[in-house]
Amino acid sequence: MASESGPEQSSGLTEDRIVREIFLKEPPLSSDFVVPPGDDAAVVRVEGDLVATADILVEGVHFDLSYFSPEDLGYRAVAVNLSDLAAMGARPHSCLVSVGMPSLVSEEFVRGLAAGIRDSLEEFGASLAGGDTVRSERVVVSVTALGTLDGKPLTRSGAKEGDGIYISGPAGLSHIGMLFLTGGTSGGEDLEEARRKHLRPVPRVALGLALREREIASSCIDTSDGLVRDLTRILEASGVGASIDVAPLLDERLRKLAQAAGVDPLDALLYGGEDFELLFTVPPEKEKELLRSVGEEVIRIGIVRAERGLSDSLGGEPLSLSGKGKSSFEHFGEGGA
Amino acid sequence: MASESGPEQSSGLTEDRIVREIFLKEPPLSSDFVVPPGDDAAVVRVEGDLVATADILVEGVHFDLSYFSPEDLGYRAVAVNLSDLAAMGARPHSCLVSVGMPSLVSEEFVRGLAAGIRDSLEEFGASLAGGDTVRSERVVVSVTALGTLDGKPLTRSGAKEGDGIYISGPAGLSHIGMLFLTGGTSGGEDLEEARRKHLRPVPRVALGLALREREIASSCIDTSDGLVRDLTRILEASGVGASIDVAPLLDERLRKLAQAAGVDPLDALLYGGEDFELLFTVPPEKEKELLRSVGEEVIRIGIVRAERGLSDSLGGEPLSLSGKGKSSFEHFGEGGA
User: Fold this and answer.
1) Band of the pLDDT at A326, cuts 50, 70, 90?
2) Cβ-based neighbours of A115, under 8 Å, separated by 6 or more
3) Which of A84, A118, A149 is the C-terminal boundary of a domain?
4) At residue A81, what are phi and psi to the nearest 5 degrees?
5) Looking at the partner chain, which of A41, A54, A80 has a beta carbon nearest the beta carbon of B85?
6) Domain residues for A60?
7) Which residue of A113, A223, B37, B236 pairs with A74 in a disulfide if CB–CB is 3.0 to 4.6 A?
8) Per DSSP, what are the bridge partners of residue A280?
9) Rounded-to-10 torsion of CA B285, B291, B297, B302
10) Are residues B65 and B204 in the same domain?
11) ipTM surpasses cut 0.85
């Protein structure tokens, strides 16, 4: 861990104590540390190519501590980074986690945050490779995730005309969960699932690995910014277009949840972000293998076209990044992680 | 780069535009990118072991925009991370840089920050491997630096009785520079050098590489938190003690600068942080080789003892982390990067 901040922090917790006793409490899982975190830097032995990505979460912008427990926050900060590794088909190796916290946070908060970080790392087989703890007015969690892969990574740029378009799970659920969380709506099991989707997104690590290792997907991205926006990124990087039919995603559950949250279900589905599902394309000759070999449920939602642009067979109209429902997503779009 | 934040940022600059047009304006320097930044993650081919470290700088805690230009801030954020790589004897490879900025910052600020980041990366042969841009009330710059090395890294734990203790440059200068900057004192060339030491610290990358490759140093750390604190980290990690004589560092220039800043020169020297010099130990049989082969000027300030503890031959008293001058460093200690 680094040594950028001073001694007195977080109600008398010193940085060294935070780092040594709380964040580094568990030994690194991986046996390939030449020098474990705690020196000026960690040294690790990496097999294959290195995959690196970074995301930063800021209190008041990406999350609110009124509905995020420190455990959920720590879990989520790591998970959204592992989701980027999953989208490349990489195996998680380790994360560096830098945390800014006001001096008034309790030791309980620090321990909760560290526990959430550890849970997420352990669940997906990654180690803590370092980080930093500093004072800041607002809570900030900045994560760099490192992964490894052998062979050709999944990228956004390989989609070709005729490829099927698939998603690994529901779209819009996390957005609806956030509306429940910020609006304080209480409710049944479905609401709980939507809230959990927002608080503890599950990176599709095993699916990403399978899609790459079996050479099934021609392109891949994770749905962090919403179906339309993320699919557009694939289409632009690949120089193609697409027709989608999102009817399979527009199920009764989503309709009911959207109604309870006071949002149009199709808008939530197309423009709601942060589901952290994998959105990927599969050449026709690989589609049978996908359904046969990938254990997780995947949903076919369209086909890649040669002509640029994205159209929806439900509405019949071309879909744009702005969308008809944009206004309801502005808060989300501006700040939502 | 990641996709964690929304579309409207920084006075109408979208995240995609910030990332693509400003931060990724220059192509990565390194030819070993399998997938350059811009996808869900970057993929790089790494030779040797990977060295990783992370530091986060927070506005109002580590820096103040009244005296930090965006260029200096960007430069410094990268440089302090490269200094941690230097302390391990690693060769800089790349950095991931996540930036939080208020929506009100100008495009000029964003361009300045990106230019400073680029300057620092280029000066030390590193590439930009990714990052994130988000909104936040205060400016936050979070950097992960990745380096490589072949063979045994420099660590804090190898100091042995009889080893000479060396430092690569002045101690206390950056602290005095910060006092000038925050106090608004103007002055001559010496003051300018102290200010520059604070704003644009120079990581000792070449020296760290030489100390490791020639197997000269038995332990090493960078002076981010002050001479006494950082030397204590080496001594504790190595299970030894030391006697130091800091007279060679207490020169006329430091005395004059300390007087102008209203601080005790010995306190600044012992407890002032952020100089980002290398502090290292050298076995007796290697000391001649050090002076012969290392181009940079290094200063001998003591000797490693078997008995625990740290004493200063100037004052004759044992030195502790608190020190006689602690009170004047509390602001610094609490927040100073």
Assistant:
1) very low
2) A70, A71, A74
3) A149
4) -75, -40
5) A41
6) 8-149
7) A113
8) A166, A220
9) 30
10) no
11) yes
